[in-house]
């Protein structure tokens, strides 16, 4: 039996490129779009993504490296599993240039060579332990953890609005109770542990309040993107014309929510990985401890609105720990 093809996808931008910076300034809007510098701050650790893939997921079919033309000087572009894709290769010209990751991700299904099964990484996500294909896809379905969720929306947290937009779409097409009870064993499983409690608490809701977004590598079916584009092309295209993030953007979470609401996923243990938002010393120390003794397969290390001095200190320590985990240069590096 042939192993199924699973591709990895990662987006990257070189925020030091003067031409990119000039374009970025040219298109800065005067609205409430998200132009936070933390979205582009360089952690100088992309090589550890590739090292993690080679060490812990050598079975991957191809890695699609999505860029506006930026290529790290150390990247081995001749690696047979590396596919470099420019935004202009698959995105309409009237959506470019873009400084908004949402359009770049929403249109991934336009990449012809991309496999039906793929895993979307952000450049702050790393594999830190051995991963099997079944960590991402099982029984022909993307692996995920489904929890109901609700929280107050902060005016400074763009991603929270994106989550609510994604929730609105599934409430348009699915009845929550039918969706959950029709896939009961996928919503209520020992794999989720105490995370199930919030789902139980929110079960009386008439509609999906929200599905908790988990900042870890996302498993997707390309056909899910096709389905959403068939049903909501106008809404998605509106987002694709936003060069910067807005509160009204739809994101790839719309596709994730759809897979969950439709029951087109397979349950994955809640401890698959851990996301750390580096807002303070406590979060930073917990992140370092987790990397020293990895309990999960993947980690996401989110930048936050911290000072430059704090950022540089965190960056040094985190990259040292990544190098301790993955000291060997990969074949993706020159």
Molecular structure report:
- This protein has helices spanning 18-26, 46-56, 87-90, 101-106, 158-173, 176-181, 184-187, 196-202, 222-240, 253-261, 281-292, 308-325, and strands at residues 6-11, 63-67, 82-86, 117-121, 125-127, 137-138, 141-144, 218-221, 266-267, 273-277, 298-302.
- By secondary structure, the chain is α/β, with parallel strands linked by helices.
- The protein has one domain (6-325): Alpha-Beta Complex (Spore Coat Polysaccharide Biosynthesis Protein SpsA, Chain A), CATH 3.90.550.
- The strands form three sheets. The chain has a five-stranded mixed sheet with strand order 3-2-1-4-8. Strands 5-11-10 form a three-stranded mixed sheet.
- A hairpin with a 2-residue loop joins strand 6 and strand 7.
- Helix 5 (158-173) runs parallel beside helix 10.
- The two termini are 34 Å apart.
Summarize this entry quickly.
This protein has helices spanning 18-26, 46-56, 87-90, 101-106, 158-173, 176-181, 184-187, 196-202, 222-240, 253-261, 281-292, 308-325; strands spanning 6-11, 63-67, 82-86, 117-121, 125-127, 137-138, 141-144, 218-221, 266-267, 273-277, 298-302. It has 334 residues and is α/β, with parallel strands linked by helices.
């Amino acid at each position: 039996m042939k192993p199924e093809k699973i591709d990895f996808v990662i987006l990257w931008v070189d925020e030091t490129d003067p031409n990119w910076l000039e374009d970025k300034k040219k298109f800065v809007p005067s609205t409430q779009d998200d132009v936070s510098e933390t979205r582009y701050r360089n952690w100088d650790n992309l090589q550890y993504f590739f090292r993690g893939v080679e060490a812990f997921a050598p079975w991957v079919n191809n890695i699609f490296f999505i860029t506006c033309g930026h290529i790290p000087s150390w990247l081995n572009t001749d690696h047979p599993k590396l596919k470099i894709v420019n935004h202009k290769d698959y995105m309409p010209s009237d959506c470019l240039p873009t400084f908004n990751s949402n359009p770049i991700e929403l249109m991934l299904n336009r990449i012809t060579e991309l496999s039906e099964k793929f895993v979307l990484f952000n450049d702050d996500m790393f594999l830190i332990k051995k991963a099997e294909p079944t960590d991402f896809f099982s029984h022909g379905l993307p692996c995920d953890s489904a929890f109901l969720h609700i929280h107050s929306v902060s005016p400074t947290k763009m991603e929270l609005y994106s989550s609510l937009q994604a929730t609105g779409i599934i409430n348009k097409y699915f009845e929550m109770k039918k969706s959950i009870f029709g896939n009961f064993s996928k919503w209520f499983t020992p794999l989720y542990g105490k995370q199930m409690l919030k789902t139980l608490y929110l079960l009386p809701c008439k509609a999906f309040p929200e599905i908790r977004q988990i900042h870890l590598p996302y498993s997707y079916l390309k056909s899910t993107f096709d389905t959403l584009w068939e049903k909501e092309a106008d809404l998605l295209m509106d987002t694709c014309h936003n060069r910067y993030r807005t509160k009204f953007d739809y994101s790839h979470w719309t596709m994730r929510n759809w897979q969950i609401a439709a029951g087109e996923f397979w349950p994955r243990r809640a401890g698959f990985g851990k996301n750390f938002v580096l807002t303070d010393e406590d979060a930073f120390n917990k992140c370092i401890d987790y990397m020293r003794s990895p309990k999960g397969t993947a980690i996401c290390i989110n930048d936050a609105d911290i000072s430059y001095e704090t950022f540089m200190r965190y960056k040094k320590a985190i990259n040292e720990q990544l190098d301790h985990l993955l000291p060997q240069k990969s074949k993706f590096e020159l």
